[in-house]
Design brief:
InterPro entries: ARM-like, ARM-type_fold. With 168 residues, the protein is mainly alpha-helical. 73% of the residues lie in helices and 0% in strands. Helix 6 runs antiparallel to helix 7.
Length: 168
């Protein structure tokens, strides 16, 4: 709670939180979620919006992206939260993470998130429109022998392609 409050205060004062401050607070939030998953129920829509906004603003910062996705993934466990998160351009953030980073851990988080999102029909169209098919396909070459990741990516591609009626 205190990390979220600190981020909120920094934003309300009109200050753009410094990158180190941001990394530290996201790390604390992630740490709390890891210790107690019920912490997720204390993270409201405003806080989710704040976290995803920083992920968009700091798309070039690997640590912000990693921590942000870990938090987003742990918040996306209920359909209600997933739907809220998806309104915050998280699909766009995930697809751009696949395009912009060579980091397998980040790809894994993005793929897992997109797989979750693809469970909701209208979101499959959004993934498609954001260029997700090409981004997922291109990222598969980075997974090497990580077969569970290859499988997740392939399942996601099939789901998306079926949706567009390209496979009967």
């Amino acid at each position: 709670g205190s990390a979220l409050k600190a981020l909120e205060d920094a934003e309300e004062e009109g200050d753009e939180p410094g990158i180190d401050f941001l990394r530290e607070k996201l790390g604390v939030i992630w740490g709390c979620l890891m210790q107690d998953s019920s912490t997720a129920s204390n993270i409201g829509e405003d806080s989710m919006r704040r976290i995803t906004r920083w992920m968009r603003r700091h798309a070039e910062d690997k640590e912000v992206q990693l921590l942000g996705f870990k938090i987003v993934r742990s918040l996306a466990t209920t359909r209600e939260n997933l739907v809220k998160l998806l309104r915050m351009e998280t699909i766009k953030i995930a697809v751009s993470a696949l395009r912009n980073w060579e980091l397998v851990e980040l790809h894994e988080l993005a793929i897992v998130f997109l797989c979750t999102a693809a469970g909701v029909r209208e979101l499959r169209t959004e993934i498609w429109q954001e260029g997700g098919v090409k981004a997922v396909y291109n990222s598969m070459s980075k997974f090497g022998k990580r077969f569970e990741l290859q499988h997740a990516a392939l399942s996601l591609l099939l789901q998306l392609v079926e949706e567009q009626g390209l496979v009967s």
